Amino acid sequence: MTRAGSPAGSAARMAGAAALALFATLFASPAAAVQEKVDQCFACHNRLGGKLGAPAKEHIGSVHREAGVACVTCHGGNPSLPTEEGMDRRYGFRGKPATRDIPRFCARCHSDVAMMRQYNLRTDQLAEYRTSRHGRLLYERDDTRVAVCTSCHGRHEIRRKSDPESTVYRTNVPRMCGACHADPAYMKPYGIPTDQRENFENGIHGRILAGKIRRENPTLAPNCATCHGVHGAAPPGVGEVANVCGGCHAVVAGYFRESAHFAAAREIGEPKCITCHGNHSNRRPTIRVFSGSGPGECGFCHEKGSKPLQFAENVRDLLGALEEGVAEYQKELDAATAAGRNVDKLKEAHENARNRLTEVEPVFHTFSLDRVLPLIHESDSFLREARQEIGNFRDEQRQRRSVAVYSVTMLLLIAALLGVKLALLPKHPRAGDVNTG
Ligand code: HEC
Ligand code: HEC
Ligand code: HEC
Ligand code: HEC
Ligand code: HEC
Ligand code: HEC
Ligand code: HEC
Ligand code: HEC
Ligand code: HEC
Questions:
Q1: Measured between alpha carbons, how far is 333 from 338 in angstroms, rounded to an integer?
Q2: How many angstroms does the Cα of residue 95 sit away from the middle of ligand 2?
Q3: pTM listed for this prediction
Q4: Is 193 helix (H, G, I), strand (E, B) or coil?
Q5: Residue boundaries of the structural domains of the chain
Q6: How far apart are CA 128 and CA 136, in angstroms?
Q7: Whose CA is nearest to atom 23 of ligand 4?
Q8: Is the beta carbon of 271 within 6 A of some atom in ligand 8?
C-alpha cells in the first residue's frame, strides 16, 4: 500500500507531471495548431447536458482549471480528438474513478512533494485521511458511505480553502459536515447522534463563527475541523479534550489542571471540559449548574449538603452579589459622567472590581476556595471604593441605605464561606488530594 516510493508510484507521478507539462505546452505555445488549442474533452462535454455536461460547467472557476489541471490531467485520454475516440484506453483514459479509489486518485498529485512545493501546499492529506475514522472505515471495512476527498471538496468545482465559495471555507464547514452528520436517515446504520451541527450552530462557537456576536472575532472561533482535525477526523479522546479546548482556552485549562477534577478525569474519565460545557453547544453554564442535578450539573455527582456543593452554592451567591454590584455601579458611573462630574476615581475602582470578577471565571476552574476567595475579596474592596465615590456624588440618604444592605449581605456571605472553608480543610487524606500537585 505504500505507493510513494514504489516504482509504479513514481511512474504514475512522473506521468502525471508529464501530462501537466504537456498540457501546459500545448495550450501556451502560440505555434501550436489551432485544432490542438481546443480542449476537445471540455468542448464536447460542455455541449452535453445532465451529468455529462455538469463536469465541464463546474470546472470553470475551479482552482484546478486555474492551475492548468484539465479534464485529461485527471482522467487521461487524448484531448485533441473531437470524437469519443479520445476516451480510448489506448490514450491512457482512466474514466471515472470508483469511490474507494478517489483518495489515491487525488493523492497522485497531492502527495507529490515536488509538484506541490511550488504551490506551498501540504502533502499529508492522504496520510492523515488514513488515520481518520472515515479512512479506516473505507479501507478496513470497504464502507463507501464515509467521507472521501470529493464528499468534502466537491468534484469538478473544487476551490481554494480561502475562497468563500469553497465547501471547506471556514464558515461553510458545519454545513458541509452536516450534509451527512445531520441527516438521520443517512447516519441511521451507525447509531451515532445527528445533532452536532444544530448544537454547534446554536452554541457560543457557532454563533461567533457565523458573525452573530458582534464583539467577538469570527476568525478565532473553531469549526468542526478545528476540533476533529482537518483530514484526520476522529472524535477527540478522553485525554485529548482538555488539549483541544486548551489550545484556545489556555488560561482556563491551566487552572483546570490544578483541580481535583483534572485528577479525577485522568482516573475515571470525568469531569472534563465537555462534561460541564457540552461537546457541541459549548455553552457557558447558567446559574442552574450549581444547584441542579442533571447531567453536567454539580449535583449530578455531588450529594446535597456535601462540601463541593456548599462550595458551589456559596461561590454562586458571592458572584451573584458582586455582579449585581458591578452592574448597579455602571449605571451610577454613566449618570455621573452625563452630569459632567470628574469620574476618574470612580471609573478606576469600578474597572478594577469588574476585572477581578472576570478573573474569577478562569480561576474558578481550580475548584478551590483558596484560589477563588482572594479575588472575590479584592473585587469587593474595589466595589467599596467605588461606592465611597458614588457617595460623594449622590443623595446621601439613599446611598447609605443600599450600602448597608449590600455590606450586610456581603459580610454574611463571606462569613458563611469562611465556615465552609474551615469545614473543607482536610481531616483525612483522599485519593484526589494525592494526585493534584
Ligand atoms: C465528442 C464528445 C466527447 C469527447 C470529445 C469526450 N467525451 Fe467524455 N464522454 C462523452 C460521452 C457521450 C460520454 C458518456 C458515454 C460513455 O461513457 O462512453 C462520456 C463519458 C466520459 C466520462 C465518464 C466515464 C465513466 O466512466 O463514467 C469521463 C470521465 C469523460 N467522458 C472524460 C473525457 C475526457 C477526459 C475527454 C478528453 C480526453 C473526453 N471525455 C472527451 C463525450 C465526449
Ligand atoms: C481534479 C481532477 C478532475 C478533473 C480536472 C476533472 N475531473 Fe471529472 N471526475 C473526477 C472525479 C474524482 C470523478 C468521480 C467523482 C465521483 O464519483 O464522485 C469525476 C467524474 C467525472 C464524470 C462522471 C460524472 C458522473 O456523475 O458520473 C465525468 C463525465 C467527468 N468527470 C468529466 C470531466 C470533464 C469533462 C472534465 C474537464 C472539464 C473533468 N471531468 C475534469 C476528477 C476530475
Ligand atoms: C472530512 C472532510 C474532508 C476530507 C475527507 C478531505 N478533506 Fe481536504 N480539507 C478539508 C477541510 C475542512 C480543509 C480546510 C482546512 C483549513 O481551512 O485549514 C481541507 C483542505 C485541503 C487542502 C488545502 C491544503 C491543506 O491541507 O490545508 C487540500 C489540498 C486538500 N484538503 C486535499 C484533500 C485530499 C487530497 C483529500 C483526500 C485524500 C481530502 N482533502 C479529504 C476537509 C476534507
Ligand atoms: C493532476 C494533479 C492533481 C490532481 C489529480 C488533483 N489535484 Fe488538487 N490541485 C492540483 C494543483 C496543481 C493545485 C494547486 C493550485 C494552486 O494553488 O494554484 C491543486 C489545488 C487543490 C485544492 C486547493 C488547495 C488550496 O489552496 O486550498 C484542493 C482543495 C484540491 N486541489 C483538492 C483536490 C481533490 C479533492 C482532488 C481529487 C478529486 C484533486 N485535488 C486532484 C493538482 C491536482
Ligand atoms: C459523505 C458523508 C460524510 C461527510 C461529508 C462527513 N462525514 Fe464524518 N462520518 C461519516 C460516516 C458514515 C461516519 C461513520 C460513523 C461511525 O463512526 O460509525 C463518520 C464518522 C465521523 C466521526 C467519528 C464518529 C464516531 O464517534 O465514531 C467524526 C468525528 C466525523 N465523522 C467528523 C466529521 C467532520 C468533522 C466532517 C467535516 C469536516 C465530516 N465528518 C464529514 C460520514 C461523513
Ligand atoms: C469545540 C470543539 C468541537 C467542535 C467545534 C465540534 N466538535 Fe464534534 N466533538 C467534540 C468532542 C469533544 C466530542 C466528544 C468526544 C468524546 O466524547 O470523546 C465530539 C463528538 C463528535 C462526534 C461523535 C458523535 C457524538 O456526537 O458524540 C461527531 C460525529 C462530531 N463530533 C461531529 C462534529 C461536527 C459535524 C461538527 C461541526 C458541526 C463538530 N463535531 C464540531 C468537539 C467538537
Ligand atoms: C479555535 C479556538 C477555540 C477552541 C478550540 C475552543 N474554543 Fe471555546 N471559545 C473560543 C472563543 C474565541 C470564545 C469567545 C471568547 C471567550 O469567551 O473566550 C469561546 C468561548 C467559549 C465559552 C464561553 C461561552 C460564553 O458564553 O462566555 C465556553 C464555555 C467555551 N468556549 C468552551 C469550550 C470548550 C469546552 C472547548 C473544547 C471542547 C472549546 N471551547 C474549544 C475559541 C475556542
Ligand atoms: C465541573 C464543571 C466544569 C468543568 C469540568 C469545566 N468548566 Fe468551564 N465553567 C464552569 C462553570 C460553572 C462556569 C461559569 C463560572 C462563572 O459563572 O463564574 C465556567 C466558565 C467557563 C468559561 C467562560 C468563562 C470565561 O472566562 O470566558 C470558559 C471559556 C470555560 N469555562 C472553559 C472550560 C474549559 C476549556 C474546561 C476544560 C479545560 C472547563 N471549562 C472545565 C464549569 C466547568
Ligand atoms: C461528572 C461528575 C462531577 C461533576 C459534574 C462535578 N464534579 Fe466536582 N468532583 C468530582 C470528582 C470525581 C471529584 C474528586 C473526588 C472528590 O473529591 O469528591 C470532585 C471534586 C470536587 C471538589 C474538590 C473537593 C475537595 O474536597 O477538594 C470541588 C470543590 C468540586 N468537585 C466542585 C464541583 C462543582 C462546583 C461542580 C459543578 C460546577 C462539580 N464539582 C461538578 C466529580 C464531579
A1: 9
A2: 8
A3: 0.88
A4: coil
A5: 7-169, 239-437
A6: 11
A7: 160
A8: yes
